[in-house]
Design a protein that fits this description.
Elements lengths: L13 H11 L4 E2 L11 H12 L12 H13 L6 E5 L1 H13 L5 E6 L3 H9 L3 E6 L8 H5 L6 E7 L11 H14 L2 E5 L22 E6 L12 E5 L1 H12 L7 H10 L5 H18 L13 E2 L8 H10 L2 E2 L1 E2 L10 E4 L4 H14 L1
Helix pairs in contact: 2-9, 3-9, 4-5, 4-8, 10-12
Length: about 375
C-alpha cells in the first residue's frame, strides 16, 4: 500500500461532493455554497491589480508583509483581542493546519462543539489526534456540563467557532466566559475561529474568546467578509511561543502568502462592508420567515447559514429529495455526529432563495 497510514481515517468532503454534483447540473438552485455571492469590492480588486502592475509579484516574508501584520495588529487591538504575535496564513484553513501541526501529538484529544466546521475533525485526525465532540443541540449553546465531561488528561485544546458554520449561531458572552473559565482552570488552550465576525445581524458586533483569555489562538481572514475567497488570505494571532513555531512550519509548507492579496488586505481592513451585511440580514429574514412554519429552525444571528431540523429526521434522505428537485443543500451529517438537520446557505440571490424556499416547503 503506497498511501500513508495517516490518511486511513480521511475521506473526501461531503460539501465538495455536493459542489461537484451541482456543477454537473443545468441551472441548479444552489443553496450549498459557503462563500459570499458578491464579488470582491471594486476598490479592493483594483488595489490588488495595481500592485500586480507595480511588480509586487514575488515571494513575501513567511509570516506576511510587515505592513499587513501591523494593520492586523491594530484591527485586533481595536476589538480588544489579547495576543503577543500575529502572522499571515493561507486562509483560516492554512492557519488551522499550522496550529494542528504545532500542537497535536498522536493520541491528544481536541474538544469540538457539535455541529462544527468539517475541517476541524479531519485536521485533528490527520495529526493522529482524537476529536471529542461536545453536543450543543437543540439550541446551539455551549453547556458547561457537556464540555467538562468531555475533558480528560489527554485534552490539548478546545475549538470555538462563532459566528458558527453550519448553524449561524453566535455564542453569547456568558457561554464564552464559561468556556474560558473551564479552560483556565485546566490550563487549556482555546482556538477561536472568527472568520465570520463581519456577519453579525442583530448587534453591532459579537464577543469572541480572544477578548477574555490570553491563551487563545485567534483566527481570522478576508475570504468571507470581503469575498476574497480565491485569494486565500487569513491570519492568526496568539501567544508568541506558539506563533514562532507556526511561522517555522509555514517555511516548510506554504512558504509564503499571495503577494498582491496582502496589499489589498491592508485596504480591506479599512473598507466598510456594512451595506453588504445589511443585504445578508435581509436574506436571512427572507429564508427564515419562509421556512419557520414547516421546519424546526433556530434564527441565525451571524454567518450566512440556516441549519433546520428536517421533517422525518433524516438529513441525508432529505438532501436526496431536494437534489431530485434540482435544489442543492448539504446534509447536516457532514458537520455533525447527527443526521437530523441540513445546512442551507443564504449566500445567494433573493430570486434563488425564493425558488429554494418553494422547493423546501413542497418536499417537507
Amino acid at each position: 500500500m503506497l498511501i500513508s497510514e495517516r490518511l486511513k481515517n480521511i475521506k473526501p468532503s461531503g460539501v465538495r461532493r455536493i459542489f461537484d454534483l451541482a456543477r454537473q447540473m443545468k441551472d441548479p438552485i444552489n443553496l450549498s455554497i459557503g462563500e459570499p455571492d458578491f464579488d470582491i469590492p471594486v476598490p479592493l480588486k483594483e488595489e490588488g491589480i495595481e500592485w500586480i502592475r507595480k511588480g509586487f509579484n514575488k515571494y513575501t516574508p513567511t509570516q506576511g508583509i510587515p505592513e499587513l501584520r501591523e494593520k492586523i495588529t491594530l484591527h485586533l487591538k481595536k476589538k480588544g483581542i489579547q495576543f503577543e504575535e500575529v502572522m499571515v496564513t493561507a486562509g483560516v484553513t492554512g492557519g488551522l493546519l499550522l496550529a494542528s501541526l504545532a500542537l497535536i501529538n498522536p493520541g491528544d484529544e481536541v474538544i469540538i462543539p457539535d455541529p462544527f466546521f468539517v475541517m476541524y475533525e479531519y485536521q485533528v485526525l490527520l495529526m493522529g489526534g482524537i476529536p471529542v465532540f461536545a453536543d450543543t443541540y437543540p439550541d446551539f449553546r455551549l453547556r458547561e456540563e457537556e464540555i467538562v465531561k468531555k475533558i480528560s488528561k489527554k485534552t490539548k485544546f478546545i475549538i470555538i467557532n462563532s459566528p458558527n458554520n453550519p448553524t449561524g449561531a453566535i455564542y453569547p458572552e456568558e457561554d464564552l466566559r464559561m468556556v474560558v473559565r473551564v479552560a483556565r482552570e485546566r490550563d487549556l488552550l482555546i482556538l477561536s475561529d472568527d472568520i465570520y465576525d463581519n456577519f453579525v445581524f442583530d448587534a453591532p458586533s459579537c464577543s469572541c474568546i480572544g477578548q477574555f483569555y490570553e491563551k487563545t489562538l485567534t483566527f481570522g481572514g478576508f475570504s468571507k467578509g470581503w469575498a476574497m475567497t480565491g485569494w486565500r488570505l487569513g491570519y492568526v494571532a496568539g501567544p508568541k511561543e506558539i506563533l514562532r513555531q507556526m511561522i517555522t512550519l509555514q517555511q516548510y509548507t506554504f512558504s509564503s502568502m499571495n503577494s498582491f492579496a496582502q496589499k489589498a488586505a491592508i485596504k480591506a481592513l479599512d473598507f466598510n462592508v456594512e451595506h453588504y451585511i445589511a443585504g445578508y440580514k435581509k436574506k436571512r429574514d427572507l429564508i427564515y420567515n419562509g421556512l419557520k412554519e414547516k421546519f424546526i429552525v433556530q434564527k441565525p444571528q451571524g454567518a450566512f447559514y440556516l441549519f433546520p431540523e428536517v421533517p422525518g429526521g433524516n438529513g441525508e434522505a432529505f438532501v436526496e429529495k431536494a437534489i431530485q428537485q434540482n435544489l442543492f443543500i448539504v446534509p447536516g451529517s457532514v458537520f455533525s455526529k447527527r443526521n437530523t438537520h441540513v445546512r442551507i446557505s443564504f449566500a445567494a440571490s433573493e430570486e434563488t432563495l425564493l425558488k429554494g424556499i418553494e422547493v423546501l416547503n413542497r418536499i417537507s
